[in-house]
Amino acid sequence: MHARSKSPKEGTVVDRGVTNVRYWDFFLQAHASLQGTARPAHYTVLVDEIFRADYGPEAAADQLEKFTHDMCYLFGRATKAVSICPPAYYADLVCTRARAHKSELFDGDDTSSVASSNVAAAAAARSVHPRLAETMYYI
């Protein structure tokens, strides 16, 4: 444990005792807490097509946990490890962007004629400049 934050050291994995007996899951404390107490991420393996086949049942969990921890250092917006692995972070960013660009699909009430007439106006107001249309950008 860190003396200042009392959080587990970054890279700490718990895969026994508090995990589900029927599923392959684990907790990973990938990052050091910047302030307060860091919360570990909880991962559940849905389908394994790689690790047991390549490393065998004995080493598969260790290899997946190490790979997941290593990925936490690859987030493009941070210079340190992040709390969850970047594919999950990027999926969350895409969903947030979709809600911002297509709010009528998530927040709109299609039964009202006022909402329907405002959909085109709202979409036009959110349009992306043509020079940015084929590029990656941050909101």
Automatic annotation (TrEMBL):
InterPro entries: Piwi, RNaseH-like_sf, RNaseH_sf. Pfam families: Piwi (PF02171). Residues 1-103 form the Piwi domain. SUPFAM superfamilies: Ribonuclease H-like. This is Piwi domain-containing protein. The lineage of its organism: Eukaryota, Fungi, Dikarya, Ascomycota, Pezizomycotina.
